[in-house]
Amino acid sequence: MPSFAPPTVDWWVLLPQMVLVGAALGLLLVSSLTPRSLPGWVSTITSIAAGAVAAVVAAVQWAMWGSTPRPTLAGAFVSDGFSLLLTVLIGAGVVMTALVAHSALDRYDMAPPEFAALLLASAAGAVVMAGANDLIVLFLGLESLSIALYVLIALAGRRASARESAMKYFVLGAFSSAFFLYGIALVYGSTGSTNLSGIGEFLFGSIRETDFLLLAGIALLLVGLGFKVAAVPFHFWAPDVYEGAPSPVTGYLASIAKAAGFAALARVLYVALAEQGTAWSPILIGLAFATLAVGAVMAICQSDVKRMLAYSSISHAGFVLVGLSAVPAASGLAQWTAGGGDAVSSAVFYLIAYSFMALGSFAVLSVVGPELQSPDADASAHSFSRYGGLARRRPVLALAFTVLLLAQAGVPLTAGFVAKFEVIRAAIGAGGYVLAAVAMITAVVSAFAYLRVVLAMYAPEGAADAGEGDSAPAARASRPRWGGLPLTSVFAISLAVAVTVVVGVFPQRLLEWSADAVLSIIL
Fold first, then answer.
1. Which of 321, 316, 218 is nearest to 262 (CA)?
2. Mind listing the pLDDT tens digit for each residue in 234-291?
């Protein structure tokens, strides 16, 4: 009788996911067994501790074995520099989201234990996506992240806008998952494997004619992952979902969820499908063109700060796509490997820099936004008029928001400038001069949208309201009184501003980390 040999499990490699999932399950268990509801600070501290421990464990692992891949579960999951750096980012995102949400849960009528458990579960899915070395495991991580986010948005169900956002995200997410699964099936049918490393070795080691089955599978995989990163034309869900979701959840969607999607995209393209770079690179370049243009143009057309930041997030996704698509002409594996490393490292650097800018920006919106306690409150009330005169009422908060917005615009001495410079440099190094020019032009166009908010904050209040026409009196009447700011949110905003400025002034260390991290995924 043949014996079944189960795969060996390296529990040390899986420790970050175990911490996140264990904290989520433990919190749910304790909250369900206690006769009274747990205080909100218990859930917040649990989330912060779990996110911080996961990030520290990942940093220790990276210090111990560097970028050397350490596979487990029969090679279905791998811990390497790329996954560990993304795990540190995900842990930091959990900490900042928990800090911002602590003072906002009551306003949205969201139960703290359920919110914290869903946040940690989605973070565990994001970690799985960052380290998945098998398409099936990648799909499991993708669904763990997505399903938790669907429910996380719907937790604020007393708000009609939140219910609508959760439903839109769920329906379109189900379609994207179906495309992704079909792509997995086609790639498996063409290569005989779902393991990313196995697919890559098979493609590099075989001489093949044009395989239309494989090309169709690649296209469907790009559709499924393009939805998760809100790349045009798969972006239609993003503005409405970002607008209707609670602001702390929106910041998490725009940063950590997007980073997980791009991490999965980088692994699929550069580990499994590197040999097919000439097939998927033109598609990625086309997606980058469309995403940059649509995100920038639509951002300047918005009269609502939250929707403007939503389209801005789409534009930033275009810059990451510029980095990922910067593949040099196929004149040998050595040149392709060097160019691919530069491309992915620039994209990773951009992801890290933008994640902190997005988390900080939506943290400001969560603090100053006119979100009401009424179940019928409209979450799209972040009009420019409501930010008029903010610099006079809250000068420090307005200054922090200004720094974050200027960083997203790419102003020098900020992380945003270095990130844009790196992806454009990678595109030029690969011969993508037209794409680099379009990226620079759209950066200038997007800057107008950010400067509108800055001018509104520093302009006299009456001047800002005058630009809103007849809606200004109503906005002025509904503007809340400016009381004390929650300390947890202030700490999160300060952390985001500090990272944005420090990385912008001293970017070399993060650039080195990003370059080291991608060594393990570039063939």
1. 321
2. 988 999 999 888 889 999 999 999 999 999 999 999 988 888 888 888 999 999 999 9
Q: Which parts of 35-153 are beta strand (E)? A: 70-72, 77-79
DSSP type of residue 78 = E
The rounded distance, in Å, linking the Cα atoms of 121 and 70 is: 23
As a whole number of angstroms, the distance between CA 429 and CA 426 comes to: 5
Signed CA dihedral, 412, 418, 419, 424: sign only: positive
Exposure string (b/e) for 506-518, b if CB count within 10 Å is 16 or more? ebeebbebbbbbb
pTM strictly above 0.85: yes
Displacement of CA 50 from its chain's centroid (Å)? 19
Q: How deeply is 186 buried, as exposed, middle or buried, from its count of CB atoms within 10 A (0-12, 13-18, 19+)?
A: buried
Tokens 């992240």 found at: 145
The residues, ordered by sequence, that sit 6+ positions from 81 with a Cβ below 8 Å of its Cβ are 62, 66, 67, 516, 517, 518, 519, 520
Read off the tokens for 327: 């593949």
Structure tokens at 7: 């795969």
Residue carrying structure tokens 């607008």: 243
pLDDT in tens, 91-138: 999 999 999 999 888 888 888 999 999 999 999 999 999 999 999 999
Distance in angstroms (rounded) separating the CA atoms of residues 220 and 214: 10
Comparing 202-206, 298-302, 313-317, the range with the smallest average pLDDT is: 202-206
DSSP-assigned states of every residue in 127-175: HHHHHB-BHHHHHHHHHHHHHHHHHHHHTTTTSHHHHHHHHHHHHHHHH
CA distance 500 to 401: 11
- SS3 of 208, please? coil
| Residue 341 three-state SS | helix
Question: In the chain, how long is the greatest CA-to-CA distance?
Answer: 84
> Do residues 61 and 131 touch, judged by C-beta distance below 8 A?
no
Burial of 409 (0-12, 13-18, 19+ CB in 10 A): buried
Q: In whole angstroms, how far apart are CA 378 and each of 113, 301, 351, 381, 472?
A: 25, 20, 31, 6, 16
Q: Write phi, then psi, for 32 (nearest 5 degrees).
A: -80, -25
Amino acid at position 430, single letter: A
Cα–Cα dist 152/472, whole Å: 33
